[in-house]
Amino acid sequence: MIKHSTNAVLNNKPMGSVIVSDFVAPWWARNRHVQTIFPRFLQKRATLKYRREDFILPDGDRVNLVWVGEPHKAKALVVMFHGLEGSINSHYCHDTAAYLQRQGYAVVVMHFRGCGGEPNLLARAYHSGDTEDAWTLLSWLEKKYPKQTKLAMGFSLGANMLLKLLGERPDQRIIQGAIAVSAPLLLSECADSINRGFARRYQAYLLKSMLKNLALKMRYIDYRGLINITSKQLSAIKTFRDFDQNITAPLHGFKDADDYYQRCSAQPFLSKIKTPTLIIQAKDDPFMNAKVVPTAEQLSKKVQVEVSEQGGHCGFVQGTPWSPKIWLQPRSERFFQAILTSTNSVNPVNSFSKIETE
Comparing C-alpha atoms, which of 158, 187, 184 is closest to residue 78? Predict the structure, then answer.
């Protein structure tokens, strides 16, 4: 049963529940595709200054970090993880980072292997359940900024990865609070949902980028013995399931696509999370279906799920077409501020049961 939220600031609802979000789509953006597409293609990007840094991984590969603000001067450092084929240029990363910086936070966006406009050096890439690279970064950040409070935020694929990481490492103490937005918590269901109706256009758009990047890497990396497909055969891949069956699974040690989906879906990890975590989902997300939204029984006491009727995929657009606003931005800052208030309190709230969760 989904509980209804009545207070937009502090409602003292316990964690470990599924509640109705206070997000309401405006009349002009009630369609799931408008919510998904408008912020990506039609909304003007916020002003944002950042710097890039290469980060070398233990296996010698590299990823690119993007820094927004100065961590030692900020009230907290937010570690941000993008979605499939995303980057700092993705509207949800770019504009949320800009908003959080204006509120006094520093942000570091981790580009997954091969993302951010720079190819990685090894054959392997990234996937929804690859938590090791993120954990390597978090451990490095803890050593570099030991006194700074660290928070985390993931979108789509990055949200699923973040939740899985928190469930795999329930006793971690680096991240004090986390937000997951539009997480594909059941990968098999999402692979099927995005292969239906208009959603197939999103699939085609993302697949085009994935296959293009793979084809470029195949020019200088020998994939023989790693995958059973040549660059000339890539055009035969038409769905995410095809890609995961032929590329993701063999390249990253899974038996097949189903094995990958089963082992990397974050939903089974939600009951193990001990970090205060807010999951934001929309019922009309074109990448998913109703089965993806977890029940309260599947959550630990530290996890709360906010569900809205509308919002699309990483959308949550309000305002007018001429002056749009993203509800997600102030919502995330309120949650993070509640984490900081509890963390810095002389008598912190027991088990974060009173943390802000609309």
Answer: 158
Name the band, by pLDDT with cuts 50, 70 and 90, for residue 343. Answer: confident
235 is catalytic: no
- 82, 111, 127, 313: which is the annotated catalytic residue? 313
Kindly report the pTM of this predicted structure: 0.92
Domain coverage including residue 129: 3-186+270-352
Q: Is residue 357 part of a domain?
A: no
228 has a pLDDT exceeding 50: yes
Q: Give the strands of the sheet with 77-81, arranged side by side.
A: 3-4, 17-20, 303-308, 277-282, 175-181, 150-155, 77-81, 106-110, 62-68, 51-56
Query: What is the number of domains present in the chain?
Result: 2
Domain finish residue from 264, 288, 312: 264
Considering 264, 279, 305, which residue would you say is the last residue of a domain?
Answer: 264
On whether both 348 and 280 belong to a single domain, the answer is yes
Q: Please confirm, yes or no, whether 22 is among the known catalytic residues.
A: no
Give per-residue pLDDT as tens, 35-67. Answer: 999 998 888 999 999 999 999 999 999 999 999
**SS3 state of residue 22:** coil
For residues 88 and 166, membership in a common domain is answered with yes
- 217 and 339 fall within a common domain: no
pLDDT in tens, 69-110: 999 999 999 999 999 999 999 999 999 999 999 999 999 999
Of 21, 90, 128, 156, catalytic:
156
DSSP conformation class of 244: I
227 & 181 share domain: no
19 and 165 inside one domain: yes
Higher pLDDT, 202 or 342: 202
Whether residue 351 lies in the annotated active site: no
Catalytic residue among 285, 308, 332, 342: 285
Residue among 237, 241, 248, 249 nearest 211 (CA): 237
Q: What is the pLDDT of residue 13?
A: 57
